[in-house]
Amino acid sequence: MMSDALYRDFNSYLRRLYGCRVQKIIVDAGLTCPNRDGTLGHGGCIYCNARGSGSGAALHSMSITDQLAAGKSYLARRYKAKKFLAYFQSFTNTYAPFAVLKELYAEALSVPDVVGLTIGTRPDCVSDEVLDHLHVIGKRHLVWLEYGLQSAHDKTLALINRGHNVEAFSNAVERTRRRGIPVCAHVILGLPGESREDMMETARFLAATDLQALKIHLLYVIRGTELETWFRAGKYECLTRADYAATVSDFLALLPPHLIIQRVTGDPHPKELISPFWALEKQKTLHAIHEYMQTNGLFQGKNFIPCKRKPRHSTFIDT
Ligand code: SF4
């Protein structure tokens, strides 16, 4: 696979771990987010709409079991997948009473062929109690935490209304890794007010953090968001595909070779997308990234400068 030579992909990692195709199934647990429900008093991230990246399945009263059953049958047909990870993606999946979370995670793991959990959440929203529980689950199943950082610059996090700072992210990663749970961080390229060098500084920050995987997203404008208002008022301009491909490539070159790259672009909902429309043509974007890397002799880790300090918590199922 082309990405194998240029960056370390997640599918290959899972195949090495389980010896078969493993697919994530997105589940919507019907939770919310403290940055949307008013708790943090921020009104939500400027690029997030009412769906909060959700599938909406919970709104249609589908249980976790039903969502996983539907996902299994589709992904087994499409990719010949044999094992699955329940991906709690929508909103903040550690933001509920502990007893509720325990039940949700247990229900997902009770579904046949679901071999693990991957839990997307905010770094300011994960308690030691939940981490301790996930550590116990992790002894028998694959468990990943996914934390949204988006940028390593506090000024950007304030501008986009994240409602947490970089320190909150570092703190969450440290507490998670202390328990040996692998962490995937999310970043967004093309955030308002950020220069190319700002984004490269984020890459260097991530390279020096004890992470096991990364998802790189493009910032796109979605209907019903604050960013849409900025865009229509001419206060925000989207990246071009060429700019994005070059930025992702340089970003990847700064990252350590061991980091698993779970994503190099996003998947906007076609009915919600305002701009840029090129974001809908994912294969063309992947091709542009691969072409830029090959033309410029880049690969993941090429410009990585190892940190003298070793990660403090190195427990990680590697292959
Ligand atoms: S943290 Fe996630 S769900 Fe909450 S407002 Fe931001 S993008 Fe939306």
Topology diagram in text:
Elements: H1 2-6, H2 10-18, E1 22-27, H3 64-79, E2 83-88, H4 98-109, E3 114-121, H5 128-137, E4 142-150, H6 154-159, H7 166-178, E5 183-189, H8 196-207, E6 213-218, E7 221-222, H9 226-232, H10 241-254, E8 260-263, E9 273-275, H11 282-295
Parallel strand pairs: 1-2, 2-3, 3-4, 4-5, 5-6, 6-8
Antiparallel strand pairs: 7-9
Helix pairs in contact: 8-10, 10-11
Iron/sulfur cluster binds at residues 33, 35-36, 44-45, 48, 52, 91-92, 122.
Structure description:
With 319 residues, the protein is an alpha/beta fold. Helices cover 37% and strands 16% of the residues. The protein has a 7-stranded parallel β-sheet, sandwiched between helices. It has a two-stranded antiparallel sheet with strand order 7-9. Bound molecules: iron/sulfur cluster (SF4). The site of iron/sulfur cluster (SF4) has 10 residues, from loops.
Q: What is the strand tally?
A: 9
What's the Cα radius of gyration?
Answer: 19 Å
Order of helices and strands: HHEHEHEHEHHEHEEHHEEH
Low-confidence stretches: none
Bound molecules: iron/sulfur cluster
Distance between the termini: 18 Å
Number of alpha- plus pi-helical segments: 11
Instruction: Record the strand order, biggest sheet.
Output: 1-2-3-4-5-6-8
* Main sheet overview: 7 strands, parallel
Summarize the amount of helix as a percent range: 25-40%
Tell me, rounded to a whole number, the average pLDDT: 93
Binned strand content:
15-25%
Structural class: alpha/beta
Shape: globular
Annotation keywords:
319 residues; alpha/beta; 7-stranded parallel beta sheet; 16% strand; globular; binds iron/sulfur cluster
